[in-house]
Amino acid sequence: MRRMIDHPTRDVGFGVYLHWPFCAAKCPYCDFNSHVRHGRLDQARWRAAFAREIAHAAALAPGRTVTSIFLGGGTPSLMEPATVGALLDAVAGAWSVAPDIEVTLEANPTSVEAGRFRGYRAAGVNRVSLGVQALDDASLKRLGRLHSTAEAMRAVETAAAHFERYSFDLIYARPDQTPRAWATELREAIARAAEHLSLYQLTIEEGTPFHGLAAAGKLTVPDDDTARALYDVTQEVCAGEGLRAYEISNHARPGAESRHNLLYWRYGEYAGIGPGAHGRLVLPEGRTGTSTERNPEAWLARAEAEGHGIVETEALGPGDQADEFLMMGLRLREGIDPARYAALAGRPLDSGRVAGLVAAGLVARAPDGRLAATPKGAPVLNAVVAELAA
Predict the structure, then answer these.
(1) Nearest 5°: CA angle at 155, between 149 and 161?
(2) Burial status of residue 298 (CB atoms within 10 A of its CB: 0-12, 13-18, 19 or more)
(3) Does domain 318-389 have CATH number 1.10.10?
(4) Whole-number CA gyration radius for the chain
(5) CA-to-CA distance for 44 and 285, rounded, in angstroms?
(6) Spelled out in words, what is the top-level CATH class assigned to the domain 14-264?
(7) Distance between CA atoms of 325 and 287, rounded to whole angstroms?
(8) Among 66, 91, 159, 284, which is most exposed with the fewest C-beta within 10 angstroms?
C-alpha cells in the first residue's frame, strides 16, 4: 500500500469530483467535456466503470478522509438516483467519509430532472447547484437552454423543499444586456437563491457555436466597458444584499460557501473520476496531476479493461505548484498565505513585486500577512498573478 506523506496542500481536505459527461443538448456557449447521446445509456455498466476508477484512485491515494464530493458534468441530473447512490457508495467504500461531508450535484432545472430530487436526497446528496443561467425566456432560448424561467423557479422551489443547501448559476454580459436590467434580474435571483449564487461572465470560447456566430458578425456581446459595468453591478448588488463575493464568480452568505470549490481554490487534494476529469493527488513522488480520457465511450472501454481511464499523469514541480496556488488562491477574497507559497515554491514571493502591486492598489496585505486581490485588482487578476509568479 502506498504511504501517506506530508505536503503543504494536505491540510485543506480531500475531495472527489465525479464527471457525468452527458447532456440532453449541447449549449452553444459551452466548451466543457459534455456530449449528447440519443440512445438509452446502460447506467449499470457506467456505475461499474465509475466504481472501478474510484477504487483505482483509492489505491493511489489511500487513507484519506473525504470532506466533499461534487457530481458535475455534463448534466448529472440525467443520472438515475440509483446511479448517484451507487457512486456515493463506491466513494464511501474506498475512503473514510467526514461526518459533515458536503455532497453537491449539478442539475438542470427542467421538470423531469427536478422530479428526481427526492431520490438524490435519499441517495446522499445534500446540496444542489442549478444551471438556471437567466431569468428571462428570450435569453434562455438564445443560450440554448431547454427550460423556461417559470420552470426554473419551480425547480428552485423543489430544491428548497428537499435540500437545506442549494445554489444556482446565472450568466451575465449576454447579448444586449444592460447594467440596469442585470441589476433587476440579479435582485430577483437573490430573493430566490437564499444563500449562494454563481455568476459567470459570458465568454466566447473557440470551437463553440457562439464563437462561429461571433466571427460571422451574427452575435454581439457587450463591449469591454459595458462588461466591466456589469461586473461592478454584480459586486455592488450582491454585497448590498448580503451575498458578498468570496471568489471572483461566487457569492454567498457567511458560512454558505461551496466547500468543495473552496478546496480547489485553497489548492487542496482531490481525485478526478469519469471522462475528462482532472485530479490533483499527493503521491509519494509528490503532488501529481491526473487527466482521464475525454471521449465517454473510450473512457468506458479503458475503465473496464484497465480499471481506470487515466491517460496522463504529470509530476508537478515546485514552480508548477506555486503558479497553480497563486492562480487559484488569488481568486478568493481571503487571498493566500505567503508562507504556503514559499513552502510550495521553495522560495518566498518577491518582496519588491509585492510592494509594487500594493502601491498600485491591486493587492492588499491583511494584518495576518495574507495577500489578497483588491476590488481594483480582481478584474485584472491574470496580470496580477503573472507579476507575482515572474
Answers:
(1) 145
(2) middle
(3) yes
(4) 21
(5) 35
(6) alpha beta
(7) 12
(8) 284
Q: Report the C-alpha gap between 110 and 114 in whole angstroms.
A: 6
For 328, the grid coordinates are 487559484
Domain chopping of the chain, boundaries = 14-264, 318-389
Which residues sit opposite 283 in a β-bridge?
Answer: 286
Q: Which of 47, 108, 40, 50 is nearest to 74 (CA)?
A: 108
Q: Under 8 Å CB-to-CB from 282, ≥6 apart: which residues?
A: 4, 5, 7, 9, 10, 61, 269, 288
- Decide: helix, strand or coil at residue 165: strand
CB contact at 8 A, 46 and 302? no
pLDDT tens, 214-256?
A: 888 888 888 999 999 999 999 999 999 999 999 999 999 999 9
C-alpha cell at 117: 430530487
Among all chains, which residue has been given the C-alpha cell 457530481?
71
Q: What CA–CA distance (Å, rounded) separates 18 from 6? A: 25
Cα 132 to Cα 169: distance, rounded to the nearest angstrom: 6
Q: pTM for the full model?
A: 0.94
**C-alpha cell read off for 269:** 487534494
Q: Which residues contact 188 (CB under 8 A, 6 or more apart)?
A: 135
The cell numbers describing 353, all together, are 513585486
**71-115 per-position pLDDT tens digit:** 999 899 999 999 999 999 999 999 999 999 999 999 988 877 888
Query: What local confidence, expressed as pLDDT, does residue 9 receive?
Result: 58
Residues contacting residue 128 through CB under 8 Å, at least 6 positions apart: 104, 105, 106, 107, 117, 120, 159, 163, 165, 166, 167
Q: Say which amino acid occupies 390.
A: A
Spatial separation of the C-alpha atoms in residues 350 and 284, rounded to whole Å: 30
Q: How far apart are CA 120 and CA 203, in angstroms?
A: 32
Query: Rounded distance, CA 73 to CA 51, Å?
Result: 17
Predicted confidence (pLDDT) at residue 1 exceeds the cutoff of 50:
no
Phi and psi, residue 124, nearest 5°: 125, -5
Count of Cβ atoms closer than 10 Å to residue 49 Cβ: 22
Please check whether residue 34 is in contact with residue 144, taking contact to mean a CB–CB distance below 8 angstroms.
no
